[in-house]
Amino acid sequence: MADVAGPYRIKGETGDWEVVVGLEVHAQITATKSKLFSGAATAFGAEPNTQVSLVDAAMPGMLPVPNKECIRQAVRTGMALDAVINRTSRFDRKNYFYADLPQGYQISQLYHPLVGPGEVEILLDEKDENSVKQVGIERIHVEQDAGKLMHDQHPTMSYVDLNRSGVALMEIVSRPDMRSPAEAGAYLRKLRAILRYVGSCDGNMEEGSMRADVNVSVRKPDGELGTRTETKNVNSVRFVMAVVEHEAKRQVEVLEGGGTVAQETRLFDPDKGVTRSLRSKEDAHDYRYFPDPDLLPLELDEDFLDECRASLPELPDAKRQRFEGLGITAYNASVLTAEVETARWFDALLDAGAEPKQGANWVVAELFGALNRRGESITDTPISPEEAAELLRLVADGTISGTIAKQVFEIMLETGEAPSKIVEERGLRQTSDTGAIDAAIDQVLADNADKVEQYKAGKEALFGFFVGQTMKAMAGKANPQIVNERLREKLG
Amino acid sequence: MSEITGLTIAELRDGFRGGEFSAREIAEDYNAAVEAAQLLNAYTLTTPDEALAAADIADQARLGGNPLPLSGIPLGIKDLFATLGFDSTAGSRILGGFRPTYDSHVTANLRKAGAGMLGKLNMDEFAMGSSNETSAYGPVISPWRRKGSNVGLTPGGSSGGSSAAVAAHIAPGATGTDTGGSIRQPAAFTGICGIKPTYGRCSRWGIVAFASSLDQAGPMARSVRDCAILLEAMAGFDPRDSTSLDLPVPQWEANLSSDLKGKRVGIPREYRIDSVPAEINALWDQGIEWLKDAGATPVEISLPHTKYALPTYYIIAPAEASSNLARYDGVRYGLRVDGESLDGMYSATRAEGFGAEVKRRIMIGTYVLSAGFYDAYFTKAQKVRALIKQDFRKAFESCDVILTPTAPSAAFGIGETTDPLAMYLNDVFAVPASLAGLPAMSVPGGLDGLGLPLGLHLIGNELDEQTVLNAGLAIEERAGFTARPERWW
Q1: Beta strands in B50-169 (DSSP E)
Q2: Domain count, chain B
Q3: Residue partners of B386: CB distance under 8 A and separation at least 6
Q4: With contact defined as beta carbons under 8 Å apart, do B430 and B188 qualify?
Q5: Domain boundaries in chain A?
Q6: Which of A62, A105, A296 sits opposite B323 (nearest CB)?
Q7: Chain A residues closer than 8 Å to B211 by CB
Q8: pLDDT of residue B1
Q9: B residues 191-230 lying closer than 8 A (beta carbon) to A
Q10: CA-based nearest distance B207→chain A, Å
């Protein structure tokens, strides 16, 4: 691992400490838009208790039936993580009482999960393709989400919204392979990207369709593993990194103060940036897991698995390598593949005939710059990949200069017009007419006789000034190459 | 013409179709009989208008020349089945006043087949009991009495309302459910027939769950043929129940035959229990003779793990029940008793809502699933269950149907059995077939010395309800069981 800054260490009074991190990521299967065992709809933000079937409300005599499409999405996700897919898995009941849990148990998979070991490759430095690290996946199991309590609707009572009750989750459990906040962040971002490529989960952490339980412990570098704490329901990459950082420091302080780290569940307070204890191991529930007798073991046949495999898209790593093979820089390739929408957009740009290297540079510099400025995402941009390819072609074939291209791009963003139309209607076509260029140069040199003197006296940096002035006089439409050639000639 | 309420379902069907009487007459006679039998406490809810409405539709259908299989037949429905628009309480206070917006798959099937509903039948709370004494709505009193005695007897349980209603002729047939004998033992106690089909034949959707891996619905009626007729209507694949069998429903009635030539009847030696009254073992021997007479050959078989069946059952069933009953928490429906906190509300609601036997089983179930005990109890019980299934698989290599007594005693008096463990022994012969998911039936064989009915128990191979029914028919024809309780209510 090529970590230029050296491994992440917490500086304690007794020396350096290493942090050990594992993540349990709960990813909602958003692809199906229907629940795991009831088939009820799962639209986000619907009126309370409008997305609830008899099964979700656990009415007497109601039974769960697995939603095959949810299983399919979880299998595809497992395959995308290079994981073992278990041909036979089964569902277990996790028993506990809470007002948001209508059945009095959550249907989950403890003993025989759907997906076994796999791994995720993370890049510790986006600019260095050799800075890779493998983070192990222990398992993925499929389970139901609970409903939601609303405490702000009534002075003394809590209300229950069961819209989320029964929604399908994948719990993706990593190995304790991460060693810094940055690694945890990189892992979560990469996992999110893969889920979004696969399409199983939209990765929308603000809406809660992805959240992480963060397991943190500290130890002396390469010593015995310490006792871990689990911080529940952390809902952004930034917060996950903050939890790792804060928890590691806290645990080091506890240990160096002569105390012991309690194995406990903690909650993150995003306002204060700290974690606090929720319940200790002694208060932990006895969930009385047992196989759900309402459900048969889940058996997957080869045809089903083949179909799942065949339906997988090109994944981020493969795409990045392909892009690099086209001559795109490692950094650009990494940036272009980080989000599935960007990657798709860029692939469409290539399909529309753009030159890969030029296209990548333009997307990363110009398009991203504009999107940032406008507070838009790639899916909002009014510019189609085809129009962008056209713009790049106009530059490549010398119809317009790079400077004019920026101008055309701005007009495209504002008006949504096609680039060739803009160039034609506004007369932005680049001129290679040496007569006109010569005339402009002559005028510039005549207007700046003093600077010509200085240049001839050796101040060669002024060459750029003459180019700029000429281009300005030509309203940017002069072919810069010809301007350069003619200027050198005229200045001797 | 004999009394309408004295006819079997097959006779009612034929008489109705032949125009001897109308469906409305059937429904009116039954409504009157139900009304007159309140002392039995067999119904928790009567629905005379529902019975009449179905009857009128049946009469119309007959005039139109296309009556449905159960047109004109009003039935009693065990209160464990959810019935659209009618209270469905599972015999529990916690579901008092609960009126479902849905019909169970089985009752919907019966409705589709043209059957009417006389009312909801009393039962042990959440089907946990063998005497109907655990019902929150009071025990059902059996129509039967010991010779010369006025002591109130139990109709068995948990489908005790069903058995009492069919035996007292206040329903021609009824639905029951059987988790560990809850159809067969009450059928035996009341001199009627009852069959639990292969696990998965009847959808569990809409039936209040007791122990999911064991629960199975089945009919209770006055003849083997009636059971075949009802079961055909109740059974069938339901995609809403993952454990439902995706198989066509056989034509059990059309294939009824009491000719058992070539059939081997297994007699399990482990079912000879010394403590069982001699009369019961004598009836068993008589049953063997009847089946021989029908052409069958008796063979001795061994079911070596039989003695572990009851303990295994009393681990698995409460374990599943403890989880299945967690949904009765006062939050969404049914009884709610307020408390200081959420946990306080749970405790108060469940303390008041559940009876003693249900609480006992929830506690047993919670215990056997808890950390540190799970492997010793639940995992081991699952293993023993597999061995019991294997016993039957082996046994059915050398026989086609198994004959045993249904219950180790005749009906006992209400309040006579207070020790829960003694109560659990009622199901000693019934439970193994439940654990193995096999079809099993009780048919009346005769009366004991006190004039109370005794049942014979037939266990069939997986999916082979037909052989069970056929052997039942052979016994029925030979036993000539016509005894009826003398009316005292």
Answers
A1: 74-78, 116-121
A2: 1
A3: none
A4: no
A5: 10-308, 314-425, 434-491
A6: A105
A7: 293
A8: 42
A9: 204-209, 211-213
A10: 5
Kindly identify which residue of chain A lies nearest to residue B369, measuring between CA atoms: A288
CA-nearest residue to A291 within chain B is B320
DSSP conformational letter for B81:
B
Instruction: Give the CATH number for residue B42.
Output: 3.90.1300.10
B158 noted as active-site residue: yes
Q: Which residue segment(s) compose the domain that B468 sits in?
A: 1-489
Residue in A61, A103, A293 closest to B207 by CB: A61
Q: How big is the CA angle at B390 (ends B387 and B392), to the nearest 5 degrees?
A: 120
| Cβ-based contacts under 8 A for chains A and B | 98
Cα A58 from Cα B81, distance rounded (Å) = 15
Interface contact A59-B240, CB threshold 8 A:
no
Please name the helix (run of DSSP H) or strand (run of DSSP E) that holds residue B382, with its range, or none.
Answer: helix B380-398
Q: What is the pLDDT of residues B248-297, one digit of tens each?
A: 999 999 999 999 999 999 999 999 988 899 999 999 999 999 999 999 99
CATH number of A434-491: 1.10.10.410
What is the distance in angstroms between the Cα of A65 and the nearest Cα belonging to chain B? 6
User: What is the SS3 string spanning A122-176?
Assistant: EECCCCCCCCEEEEEEEEEEEEECCCEEECCCCCCCCEEECCCCCCEEEEEEECC
Distance CA(A299)–CA(B178), nearest Å, equals 29
- The 8 Å CB, 24+ separation contacts for B347-351 are B349/B94, B350/B94
The pTM (predicted TM-score) of the whole model is: 0.91
Residue position matching structure tokens 């050639």: A485
- Which among B268, B284, B267 has a CA at the least distance from the CA of B276? B284
Distance CA B429, CA B271 (A): 7
Reported ipTM: 0.96
In tens, the pLDDT along A399-429 reads 888 888 998 999 999 998 999 999 888 888 8
Q: Which residues of A touch B378 (CB under 8 A)?
A: 290
B420: tokens are 């829960």
Q: Which residue has the tokens 């048919």?
A: B443
The dihedral formed by the CA atoms of A348, A349, A351 and A356, expressed in degrees to the nearest 10: -130
Q: What are the chain A neighbours of B369 within 8 Å (beta carbons)? A: 95, 288-290
Task: Compare all CA atoms of chain B with the CA of A106 and give the residue at the minimum distance.
Answer: B323
Closest-CA distance, B157 to chain A, in angstroms, reads 20
